[in-house]
Each structure stands twice: as structure tokens, then as C-alpha cells.
Amino acid sequence: MKKIEKRAVLCRILALFLALGLVIFLGKFVLHGGSWASSAFNRHLYNNAGQLAVGTVLDRDGDVLSAVENGRRNYYKDATVRKATLHAVGDPQGSIGTGALNAFADRLTGYNLINGAFGADRGKELYLTIDARYNYEAYKALNGHAGTVAVYNYKTGEILCMVSAPSYDPLNVPKDIETNDRYKGAYLNRFLSATFTPGSVYKTVTLAAALERLPDLANRTWTCSGSVQVGEETVVCSGTHQEQNIRDAFANSCNVAFAQIAQELGADTLKQYTEQAGLTDSYSVDGIPTARGTFDWKNITDGQLGWAGVGQYKNQVNPCALMIYMGAIANGGKAAEPYLLQKTVSPLGIPSLPHLTRKTDRLVSEKTAEILRDLMSYNVEKTYGTKRFPNMELCAKSGTAEVGEGKTPHAWFAGFLQNEDAPYAFVVLVENGGGGSSVAGTVAGKVLNVMVNGY
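Now predict its structure.
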């Protein structure tokens, strides 16, 4: 009798494990079934060349960016558009992991929970938030330089423009793409998956910390004679700005003033404000993780801290995170989290559920954001000139990031529009491009002009 009872208990335990395993499997099936069905091993969905042979990718206006024709994947008719949208759409071979053909493969198939993979080969239409025209203009504006251009709506989260260069034509892949320096990093989406020395665009973070931690900031002045000794380092400035208040020091992008401010604030304070700004976070763009920015604050000397405060030393920033921070300043401290996937439409014409806008954590206080907006607007007026950016109500900061002796600096331009009809935040990086205002600012102006003024 005792043996029977023991066996009954053992059977109950085994049944419990089986039930638990079934629940876990069903849970994973609900969460990951689409990914399983869209695996490259599923020969119903991939052709002999390894290309996803189902689904259509379109931009926000319904322009077809990639579709299947005669069992093979095709792209937009214009080669420049193909290059400009490559990192958003993806390549047939799956080398670009952040492209829709790879990152959203499960949503391009006709898979659903009810029918499973049955009928998945009919595919879906997948609409991206980008506008092909904006990408086209941004790619042309980069003019062959490596870098990235991105613009998004900081109220809704829609990424309207996302370009990474170098790029290539997915229908005519260069034979020397692996060996030619011209295509170095062509598979990398620089906006989402890379980090760079920020240069003076980082001064927006140093300024935010100073506004909140130095109570007499508005009444102070700094004298710039071209350089300043901070600890054991000589921090060099781009000019000799003489005596200036914080408003003019920011507009002058004065390294002398901001290095001294950084030293006064201290490493712990700058670390806190850098993290609060989200520059060390990894965001998720429809499931695609962004690269984390990196900052080394341990055992930092006063001189190194001075350089860090002006965006040099070991600072590394992800362009997407910087763009979101710009959006937060524009939007009172919090911004919409960016997304790329507008909607999918099933073979029966049934659209997916609308996207739910999610906000970031508070990246900057509301009061500080208001002051930053004013100072960034003044910066455009005094330093860059509002005529370069008509009808935009632009607030921006440029950066010229030194990246090593003998190398041309990276050019940055980041900011936002205070325009109710165009609530856009943006970031432009031109690798080894030179001056931030002259080079990256010009790229930004060309793209924003098309977006705001239509030409």
C-alpha cells in the first residue's frame, strides 16, 4: 500500500512538472512564435539565396521600399533612395541587423497565433515611420561622408529620418565591400548602434548641472584668453572670448569657461547629470537596443575633468540617446521614446493596433529645460544665424570633437524646433567632417528646410 502511495505522489510530481513545462512552452510560443516562424531555417519564407521572400516594406507615405518580385527581393527604383534607406529597410543577406528585413522579419510574415505559420508565406505590409524623401535629402547632404542624420517627433516618437553612412546599393553590392575603406562600417547603423566623442554638444549637460548646482551662475563671469590651466592640463579654447557671462560663454562654446565649471561641479555631479540625461542608457527602438554611451569618471584628475566637461576626454555618446535628450529639453524634461514601426497590414487588409506613445523618464527638470531652450535659441541667433534656418524656431548646439592627433574632428549639430507644427528633435554627425556649425549645421539645415518648408 505504501509503495502505491509513493508511486502516486511521484506521478503527481511528474504531472505537475509536465503541466509547468507546458505552461512555459505556451508562454514562449505566444511571445516568440513569430520569431520561430520567421527563422532563416524556415524554407517556406526564405528563398535559395537566403533572402526573406515574403512581406513588403513601405515608408510612411506608402512608397514601396522593398518587395518580393518573382520570388526575389527587390527595392525602390532609385539607387540613391536605396542607399539612403538601407539601414532602415535592411539588406537581402541580413548583414544589417537593425534593418526591417532582419529586425522585424516576424512581422513581415503572415504568421499569427491562430493559424501559426500556415499562410505565413503570404506576408504582410510593414509601414515604417520614415519618409523616403527626407532620407534621400539627408543622404545627399552628407555628400559621401561617413556619419548619421536623424530627426524624430519628440511628442509622438516617430522617427521621420534615419540615415547612416557609408551605405551601398543592396541591388548592386560592391565586390570590395569587405576590403575597401570607403565602405568601412557600412553594415553598422551609426544612429542606433555606435558611440562617438561628442565634443561641445555635451556642454548642454554641463550647463544643466551648472544651472542647478551653482546658485550664483547668472551673476558670474569668466575671462577667456585662449586657454586655461586646470590641474595638470592646459584646456585650449577655439577663440579668445575675453570676459563673458554664462549666456555668452555657451554661445561662444567656450572651453575655458566650461572646463572651469566642470572642475567646480566635480566628477560625481557630472556623472549624475550624464546618467539623468539618459546618455548612458540603452533605449529600445521597437525591440532594437541602442548602444550605451560610456564615460569614465573613476580616478579622474581635475584636468581630465575639465576636458570631460567640454565633451572630450573619454566621453562617448550614442546619437540616438543625444537626440532623445534634445527632445526632452524641448518637451519640458520628458520626451517620447522613438519608434520605427508605424503599422503592419495583414494579407486581408487588417491593420495592427495603433502605436502607444511612451515617455522617457525625466531627463532634465522642467525649469532647467526652459532655461536651456532659451540659451540654445540665443546660441542659434548669436552664433549660427537664424537666416540659415528659416521658419524653424531652432534651438541647437554644435560640436567639433577632437578624435586624435592628425585626424580631422567629428562635426556635430543637435537640437530641436520650437514649432507646434513641426515638433522635431534632430542629431547630425559627420565623421571627420571638421567644424560642427559649418559642416554638420549645413547638413541639418538642408534636411530641416525640406521637412519644414518643403524645399
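The longest strand covers residues 394-401.
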